[in-house]
């Protein structure tokens, strides 16, 4: 008798430090939807020692076929047998109904390329709902998700999105990138497939990971969005919504570069960007680059308030205190 394959294959890449791995694993085992298998992708002997006491037969240990999170995710996708692949990054957590909610989206909106939910962000002190310009509980199909990212965080993190296994294998994560490798994969899927989304947070993104802190790792470790946009446009494969997104993704890199001391390189990259899609944000970046700290300190609360409104922060909640955080809080800055 042929063995039935599970509905979901879950890929959980192990990364050091692994102080929060146990929370991630427990959130997986607590899922109310039980038809899943999981692949814990390990790098090195230290990971193996932590996994010796795994008892759930649905959880399998496999080695990574390279270094870095992209190689680990790709190894998990290669081993997967489920109809859909979901990702749970080490340190992140799922709420108990997460897979149940994703399964409901797949049932009610078949044929899409991406299925995702909103998420909580945890900075180690407080958890807040990712701000998004959608009504609370919005549920539906969207041709492109790109515009949801403008002036805020992505609508889903790696730990709050799933996609069909075939598409996951056709769209591997790019190696050597230390940030944005997941957004690049979702961007490529969304060029040809719709996105289905639920604006309810059912996972938690932990900001304690290096890529969660707005770090710029150098040009060799970040993706050249402008070059990608140019290639796709030349091939007639870049719709206007996607072209605008490549500019936005580049501007976010410019901000990270300025914040991490790469000002001259940031201004060179900014010169490559069309100035029309985001004139206010471009002006903001120039202020970051040139205004003295004393003047910027005066202007910053107003800038933060504008970003809070543009990102939909007024529709978001703080899980710890049950209130909306103030507009000037650093957490609202993408």
Name some characteristics of this structure.
alpha/beta; ten-stranded mixed sheet; about 15% strand
> Main sheet, how many strands, which sense, barrel?
10 strands, mixed
Helix content: 25-40%
Mean pLDDT: 84
CATH class of the largest domain, anyone? Alpha Beta
Give the DSSP E fraction (strand runs of 2 or more residues): 15-25%
CATH architectural category of the largest domain: Alpha-Beta Complex
> Care to count the β-strands?
10
Outline: globular
What is the CA-based Rg, rounded?
20 Å
CATH fold-level assignment of the largest domain: Spore Coat Polysaccharide Biosynthesis Protein SpsA, Chain A
> Termini separation (Å)?
51 Å
The CATH homologous superfamily of the largest domain corresponds to Spore Coat Polysaccharide Biosynthesis Protein SpsA, Chain A
Structural class estimated from helices and strands: alpha/beta
Structural domain count: 2
Report the order of strands and helices.
EHEHEHEEHEEEEHHEHHHHH
Number of helices: 11
| Uncertain residue segments | 321-334
Please characterize this protein's 3D structure.
The chain has two domains: about 10-215, Spore Coat Polysaccharide Biosynthesis Protein SpsA, Chain A (Alpha-Beta Complex), CATH 3.90.550.10; about 220-330, no CATH class. Helices cover about 35% and strands about 15% of the residues. The protein has eleven helices and ten strands. The chain has helices at about 20-30, 45-50, 70-80, 100-110, 165-170, 180-190, 225-235, 240-260, 265-270, 280-290, 295-310; strands spanning about 10-15, 35-40, 60-65, 85, 95, 115-120, 125-130, 140, 160-165, 195-205. Strands 1, 2, 3, 4, 5, 6, 7, 8, 9 and 10 form a ten-stranded mixed β-sheet that branches. Helix 8 packs antiparallel against helix 9 (about 265-270). The longest helix has 20 residues, at about 240-260. The chain starts with 7 loop residues before the first strand and ends in a 23-residue tail after the last helix. Mean pLDDT is about 85; it is low at about 320-334.
């Amino acid at each position: 008798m042929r063995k039935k394959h599970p509905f979901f294959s879950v890929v959980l890449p192990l990364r050091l430090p692994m102080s929060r791995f146990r929370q991630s694993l427990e959130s997986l085992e607590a899922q109310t939807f039980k038809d899943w298998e999981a692949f814990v992708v390990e790098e090195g002997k230290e990971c193996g020692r932590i996994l010796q006491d795994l008892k759930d037969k649905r959880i399998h240990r496999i080695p990574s076929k390279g270094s870095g999170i992209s190689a680990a995710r790709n190894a998990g996708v290669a081993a997967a047998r489920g109809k859909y692949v979901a990702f749970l990054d080490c340190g992140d957590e799922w709420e108990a109904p997460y897979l149940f909610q994703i399964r409901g989206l797949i049932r009610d909106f078949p044929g899409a390329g991406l299925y995702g939910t909103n998420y909580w962000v945890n900075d180690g002190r407080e958890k807040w709902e990712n701000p998004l310009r959608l009504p609370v509980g919005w549920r539906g199909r969207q041709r492109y998700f790109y515009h949801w990212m403008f002036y805020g965080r992505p609508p889903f993190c790696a730990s709050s999105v799933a996609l069909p296994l075939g598409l996951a294998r056709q769209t591997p994560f790019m190696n050597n990138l230390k940030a944005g490798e997941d957004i690049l994969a979702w961007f490529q899927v969304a060029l040809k497939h719709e996105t289905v989304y639920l604006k309810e947070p059912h996972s938690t993104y932990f900001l304690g990971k290096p890529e969660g802190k707005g770090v710029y790792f150098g040009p060799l470790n970040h993706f050249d969005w402008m070059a990608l946009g140019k290639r796709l446009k030349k091939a007639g494969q870049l719709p206007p919504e996607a072209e605008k997104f490549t500019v936005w993704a580049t501007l976010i890199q410019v901000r990270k570069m300025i914040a991490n001391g790469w000002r001259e390189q940031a201004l060179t990259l900014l010169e490559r960007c069309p100035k029309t899609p985001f004139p206010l944000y471009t002006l903001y970046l120039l202020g970051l680059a040139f205004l003295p700290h004393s003047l910027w300190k005066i202007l910053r609360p107003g800038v933060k308030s504008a970003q809070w409104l543009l990102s939909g922060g007024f529709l978001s909640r703080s899980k710890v205190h049950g209130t909306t955080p103030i507009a000037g809080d650093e957490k609202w800055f993408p």
